[in-house]
Amino acid sequence: MGNHESDPPQDKKTVPANLETRQMRGLSKRLRQPLSPEPSPAATSVPPVPEGQVAKTHLVSSPPPRPAPAAGDTREVNAKPQVSPEGLLPAGVQLQSRYKVLGIIGIGGMGAVYKAQDLRFPGVLRLCAVKEMINTATDPQVRQMVVRNFEREASILATLSHPAIPQVYDYFTEGSRCYLVEEFVTGKDLEARLAEVDGFFPENQVIDWAVQLCEVLSYLHNHKPRPIIFRDLKPSNIMLDDHDRIRLVDFGIAKLFQSGEKGTMIGTEGYSPPEQYRGIAEPRGDIYALGATIHHLLSKQDPRLEPPFSFHERPIHRTNPTVSRELIEVIDKALEYDVNKRWGSAEEFKRALGARTPVKAGGVQGETLTFDTNVVKPVWKFACEDEIRGSVTVAGDMVFVPSYDHNVYALDRESGKFKWKYPTEAGIASKPWVSEGMVVFGSIDKVVYAVDAKTGRLLWTMPTQGRVYSSPYGELGHIFIGSDDRQIYAIHQMSGRRAWTYTADGEIRSRPLVAESLILFACQMGMVYALSLNRELRWRFRARRGFLASPIMQNGLVFIGSLDTNFYAIDARSGWAAWKYRAGGGIVSTAAFWKDIVYFGSVDGYIYALDAGEGRVVWRYQTDNQITGAASVFGGNLYIGGVDGVLYCFDALSGAVRWRYQTDGPITGAPEIVEGIIYVGSADHYVYAFPT
Amino acid sequence: MAGLKAWLRDIFKKPAQQEQPDSAVANLFKKTEAASTEPVTPPSPPQPEEARRLWEASGIFAVGWATDVGQVREHNEDALFVVSGEHEASNAAPAFGLFMVADGMGGHQSGEAASSLSLRVASSQLLAQVYLPLISGTDHNANQPSLTDVVREAISLANRAVTRDLPGSGSTLTCGMILEGRLFIGHVGDSRAYLLRAGQPPKQLTKDHSLVSRLIEMGQLTEAEATTHPQRNVLYRAIGQGGALEIDVMTYALLPGDRLLLCSDGLWGFVEESEIWRIIQAAPTPQQACAQLVAAANAAGGNDNITVILAEIWRKA
């Protein structure tokens, strides 16, 4: 029904209250400024602006509140009229001495939809839906045209015969009002079903609905002489009858297709295809709206609450990981911005839906299986006598390897050949610092050592009162290192003389950092400290649990994860968290920064890539075990090891796995990358050198 | 020098007729006279060159602002808020700046009420949650919301207040909060924040939450088509829409010499960006730049209310 050039969005029965407001305000703007390429007569048929003129031309597109689950016929329950009741037919009124109004199903921009009883059938309650269009045109010629259009479309609708399309029984005009009498459909619409369902609809159920919708769209699109475009497909326009069969309701804006014709933008924001905003309605617009509807049904993300056309940014599996990849691909193609990239027809869409073989839950995680493990081969590997828990350091032509076998090993960088080793009294679980021809490291035997990088000869030792798990950091001629005696030590690098200490609240087990005139370190009691270079405390930041990760600093933000499961970005000047991100488990992994993204792993098994400016997830990847190793980025790739023994290589921007290498023990240290070679140790006792 | 300082203090007060004597925070609140024909601006600096030199020496920010009803509208539904807090001491609190622009919408004067309420709610929240703790020097901890969360919450409170008290109206809100060398942007709607940095093209920090900008992004509309599109004024996110409003919050590192420009669409919708940059570069002070930007928008028709705030960051502590 309705003039297909000019129907305003016909509010459906279930449209909630504040959406109603929005559309009224939208229409009020059209009233002031005819906006369609050809100003349409119905632009004058708009309800008046509530009060005075809307001076500002912005419109808030209010998100619809979730409709309350309703018992019985939701078309009635959800239909609390929000507009002024004047002009509405009260219950009891008879139209054509035949249709007795029982109540209001819904109110649209051009009139109401009533539930009515057909009195022609005495003794039974034969229900029908009576759609009303109030002709408010004042110009007699326009009035007549509106009526003629209405009659033409009513006639066309009356000839449609499809099980999913409600039958049209009758139409008539009374004064300035045109009426269309239709079959009354009982059941619930999909929007109401969405609101009721706990969890997600089963995939096969949604596919079944989608296939039925393709069939009815195919029927409409193949209508002769011209295709009919539904134009407003969405969950609230799809009823499910008692046999779970689809019925399309509200043909208010269905449009007979005329090639190249531009009409007024009509449809529902969120479901309508982009080209419809240019006034173009064609069959593949319905394909898009069906894709949007299926996306909503599967993901339970209401597109009216999301940025327009953002389906590709909100992949279904993000909220509903049980949906098969094959189905997602079929839906994604329906949702292409470019009409020519969508399914070409409803039949094609239906075939694609039928062809894909549903995969059971977890199918999405299958991605890594397509990557051959160990396609990358080590250039060399070297066996220590015990696990490597710390990280290797590369300097000059040497690789320095800390091992739990008490030694630091020096290997030739190119060949992996043994050069020398320095034995301490206990295991070494940190990362050596190398500068000025000197290798500095701490040992669990409580001592900090400095040995000559070339020969392995001892240069100095500096005893502490606790085990040293902390890695040293050198800056300004000093070595900064923490100890389980809760102190951070500043050691004069050349002499090994202790310059000063600062006592923290807990054991210091990670690496300190000197950056932007601050000395930063974190302790097991969950405190991050920022000291000025003259040891004055600038700020402290307390997390809920301890820190085993080391701080990194970039652009004035200190990035560090805590065992309290939060990853913090702390403003280096004020000590205030600029943002934090909560992972699913504690964070031991030291972060890496690249191109405004921070990377780290968590004991929840995920590797995270977060936007450094807002803490938003750019991508994340689930592994089979905890991630405690530090991340490294090189050449656009992210390298990180897992407790599952795998060294992972990702495309740093997209999170796609490039390759993986399985070692025989957990990787807990950081991969070090120098001149295109990755050096990493594993608890399987080996240090590996891989090509990037 | 003393006179200049006093004047600098003065410009951070709002026009006398808008005085809110009951609250120090409200005192900082600027709201425009609906019917004024002249742009509402702080007094002009007495000696631009000298002012600039002393400004440079005396603080971290130099701020200018202006708002104007334009040539067509009867009311100014825009609102702005400016606070600049500096602290000189041996262990000083970080310098603080809070700059906000809101562009109201809704008929029957509810647009100006919405923009006004949005800024009152958000600014009082941010000053209480950020600035006061900064001055008192509280320790920071994980139980405290992060600064991005504070910004998000402040805007979210404004959304709830407008939804509750002014149903049917709405507002954009773009907030720039500076903690010394760090900028936080909070944003909903189609007002904009730009960062101008020497040697780099100006960067728009905010994304317009409008239907047409989405369509442009997707290649479905050209910029030119967008200016006449029937739904060019439809925002998909705004203060007043209620529910779980999604708010964009980002943080950036600032460098000395950076300029932060906040403006309503009455500026960017009518004045070419290249012209905006030219005016800002050429003006001797941020205040003069703001006055000239408003004049340029009016010269281009002044079809909408015009609001600009320009903050220059002079040095890093």
Q: Can you put this structure into words, describing what you see?
A:
- The complex is a heterodimer of chains A (692) and B (317).
- With 692 residues, chain A is an alpha+beta fold.
- Among the domains of chain A are: 17-183, 2-Layer Sandwich (Phosphorylase Kinase, domain 1); 194-368, Orthogonal Bundle (Transferase(Phosphotransferase), domain 1); 381-503, Lipocalin (Beta Barrel), CATH 2.40.128.630.
- Chain A is elongated and about 110 Å long.
- Mean pLDDT of chain A is 81; it is low at 1-84, 253-266 and 357-370.
- With 317 residues, chain B is α+β, with helices and mostly antiparallel strands.
- Chain B has a single domain, classed as PPM-type phosphatase domain (Phosphatase 2c, domain 1), CATH 3.60.40.10.
- Chain B has helices spanning 2-11, 24-27, 48-58, 110-136, 147-165, 211-217, 223-226, 265-268, 273-282, 286-299; strands at residues 29-30, 61-68, 78-85, 96-105, 140-141, 170-171, 173-179, 182-188, 192-196, 203-204, 234-235, 248-253, 259-263, 306-313.
- In chain B, strands 1, 3, 4, 6, 7, 8 and 12 form a seven-stranded antiparallel β-sheet that branches.
- In chain B, a hairpin with a 2-residue loop joins strand 7 and strand 8 (182-188).
- The longest helix of chain B has 27 residues, at 110-136.
- Chain B starts with a helix and ends with a strand.
- Classes of the chains: A alpha+beta (692), B alpha+beta (317).
